[in-house]
Design brief:
four-stranded parallel beta sheet; Rossmann fold; six-stranded mixed beta sheet; 16 helices; about 40% helix; alpha/beta; 13 strands; single chain; about 450 residues
Length: about 450
């Protein structure tokens, strides 16, 4: 009854999920297409009850935020072939204090970085590696799985492949990712290749290396990844009492994330769990902003840029692969694309930390866009907002420490919190405490 297959987003060609294929006959991206008529054999209330009951279950698949919604992801994948690290079901942080400061109805931050490898990439990688695991068990001649990465994708790929016992290869731009991101694939046993290029250069090479299909491509142009990442929308809906906020803000680099967010909302509308569309906002760093530039020209066409260095290193991408899907997402969801400077993203991240978050620079990009759009009243005081946090701040400790130590080049840190170095003397300590605004 439930069935899924690959389908071209701009043509009619279809392929079974067992086929190693990433683009359609005309070169367009693929998507995982579901038999949505089968979904409607269950009422919205039946879906709600199913998902609620699984949230209480301790079955391995049900402990995953992705696989607890498996009928909407890969419905025909045998449960025994699932490769899971209990991804998903991440916290929805109530940022009401910050909401009061900027005067919006409500503000929450979806902490997708509270995951096994510290980023939302786990959601997509569990689906891709599970499908590869299934193919290998059925005698597919796949030797390894590979990706180009600015850090988080490589961490997720290496962990899930290690869990499944499948070799992995990661292509990283040399010297352009954090130590925490670099050490993860090394520790998980990947073949780590640091190339003297940027992400776009790595992406070009990994596509060449995977062309013979014996090495499986794991980047977000592979639509299996989107199926896992779209479950962010499902989780939000469930966490917010089967509704979504007025506005969703997500940082964008290669643009698979916003494509997935929109696909998940499409599904929720189709099965009747929601009946109102939220507005989707994509935030880009000013130093790597091809999607913003295309938006400002009414999406006439994507003009790739040479991405400049940005503190939001995971979205330092000048030629986003998922651009066609992201463009459609913005058009379908009354969307906006905003850009923020290095100063704006740095201050936004650390302003959010003041209410108990520990914010990565990419989430700082999304928060910076929120603050700008609120100041312009493009986001109104009557709207509810959710910001998608894509990674854990601990993966970017150099960014955090550099901000507070006032060592980030070109940044004047408005929210810096300096360490007070004192002699081991109670009087000196008391003087500082007395002068501190307690």
């Amino acid at each position: 009854m439930f069935h899924a297959e690959f389908k071209s987003i701009s043509g009619s060609d279809k392929y079974p999920l067992s086929q190693v294929v990433y683009r359609g006959e005309d070169g367009s991206l693929l998507e995982v297409s579901h038999n949505r008529d089968a979904w409607k054999t269950r009422s919205p209330e039946e879906w709600k009850n199913l998902f609620t009951n699984r949230r209480l279950s301790f079955a391995p698949a049900d402990l995953s935020g992705v696989w607890s919604k498996r009928e909407l992801v890969l419905p025909e994948l045998p449960v025994q072939d699932i490769v899971t690290l209990q991804e998903g079901f991440t916290p929805l942080f109530n940022a009401q204090k910050l909401a009061q400061e900027i005067k919006v109805k409500s503000l929450h931050v979806k902490l997708c970085g509270n995951s096994h490898t510290g980023s939302f990439k786990d959601l997509g990688m569990t689906v891709l590696v599970s499908q590869v695991n299934h193919l290998i068990k059925n005698k597919a001649k796949i030797k390894a799985v590979a990706c180009a990465s600015t850090g988080d994708t490589s961490a997720a790929l290496s962990a899930y492949c290690a869990r499944a016992g499948i070799p992995s290869i990661v292509f990283l731009p040399a010297g352009k990712i954090s130590v925490a991101q670099l050490v993860q694939p090394i520790s998980n046993g990947s073949l780590v290749l640091a190339l003297d290029t940027d992400f776009d250069g790595c992406m070009k090479i990994v596509q060449e290396v995977t062309a013979d299909k014996s090495i499986y491509l794991a980047n977000s142009m592979n639509s299996l990844r989107i199926e896992g990442q779209k479950t962010i929308s499902y989780e939000l809906c469930q966490e917010m009492g089967w509704q979504l906020p007025d506005v969703l803000i997500i940082p964008g680099g290669n643009l698979g994330n916003v494509s997935a967010l929109a696909k998940g909302i499409d599904d929720l509308l189709e099965i009747g769990l929601i009946n109102k569309k939220p507005r989707i906002i994509v935030a880009q760093a000013e130093n790597a902003n091809p999607f913003y530039l295309a938006y400002k020209k009414n999406f006439n066409k994507l003009e790739p840029v040479q991405a400049k260095k940005t503190l939001a290193s995971a979205i330092q991408i000048g030629n986003p692969v998922s651009y066609p899907k992201a463009e459609q997402a913005i058009k379908n969801y009354n969307g906006i694309v905003e850009q923020v400077s290095e100063q704006e993203l740095s201050d936004a991240a650390h302003r959010a930390d003041k209410i108990g978050l520990y914010t990565c620079p990419h989430t700082g990009v999304a928060l910076g866009a929120l603050f700008k759009l609120r100041e312009k009243n493009i986001i109104s005081s009557e709207e509810s907002v959710v910001v998608i946090s894509t990674a854990h701040g601990l993966k970017f400790s150099e960014f955090k420490a550099g901000y507070h130590e006032q060592k980030l080049e070109g940044i004047s840190p408005k929210y810096a919190n300096s360490i007070h170095r004192l002699p081991a003397n109670a009087g000196a300590v008391q003087d500082v405490i007395n002068n501190y605004a307690l």
